[in-house]
Design goal:
- The protein is mostly helical and about 220 residues long.
- The chain contains eight helices and two strands.
- A two-stranded antiparallel sheet has the order 1-2.
- The longest helix is centred in the C-terminal third of the chain and has 30 residues.
- The radius of gyration is 25 Å and the shape is globular.
- It starts with a helix and ends with a helix.
């Protein structure tokens, strides 16, 4: 009877392990759309802080006395929406999500025509099809603010404690991501085409150098 009980217990344990393994193997991994998240963050920043004036630090690449290239900080004042617009325009960066793209230009246009930004008035003028996208972004921000971190003895800094840093970090991350996409396109082209790849390799090298420079800037911002 003792041997039979041990055998039954062993079979039961094996069944439980097998069931656990099946569940674990079939659990889907959620893929993060980095570009979508960054574009959404830009819209959120514009909605919450677009009309604010901040001190932005631009890092300019200069040669020092030893002949080495260094990043030299230059501070200038600008409205948040102007900074974002000029940075995106400088690198000819385009939104991949059409809804975010439309909302972005509508916000920029609104802020160009109005000294202050009223979310209520802006949404009143917005196409009803786009209202859910704006509402969802604002609700995400509200959920962040209302989350009870204190019960876990976690006291995060306010999201708007440094808007200029948030803007710079988001734009730099988007630039780095888009550069990676471009480099992958070049690499794919070399596999599909058997002709001379000298010019393509030069482009990859240039983009890789730009990525390293932006990464250095991002580390300075963080």
């Amino acid at each position: 009877m003792s041997k039979k009980a041990q055998l039954d217990a062993s079979k039961t344990a094996q069944k439980k392990k097998k069931a656990f393994d099946v569940v674990k193997a079939t659990t889907p991994t959620k893929k993060v759309d980095v570009q979508y998240e960054l574009e959404q963050k830009i819209i959120e920043i514009l909605l919450l802080y677009g009309s604010r004036t901040e001190d932005f630090e631009d890092l300019i690449l200069k040669e020092n006395d030893e002949g080495d290239l260094v990043l030299e900080p230059v501070i200038h004042k600008a409205k948040v929406f102007e900074k974002i617009y000029l940075d995106l325009q400088e690198d000819e960066m385009q939104f991949g999500n059409e809804n975010f793209k439309t909302i972005y230009y509508l916000i920029i246009d609104y802020l160009n025509q109005n000294e202050t930004f009223s979310i209520e008035n802006f949404m009143h003028e917005l196409d009803p099809k786009l209202v859910p996208f704006v509402s969802d972004i604002l609700m995400n921000d509200e959920r962040y603010r209302l989350h009870n971190w204190e019960k876990n003895n976690i006291f995060p800094k306010r999201k708007d404690f440094n808007v200029a840093q948030l803007v710079s970090e988001t734009i730099l991350n988007l630039r780095c991501f888009l550069i990676d996409l471009k480099v992958n396109e070049f690499k794919a082209a070399t596999h599909e085409n058997s002709s001379d790849h000298t010019s393509v390799l030069e482009d990859v090298l240039n983009y890789s150098n730009l990525k390293r420079l932006l990464s250095r800037k991002l580390n300075r911002v963080l």
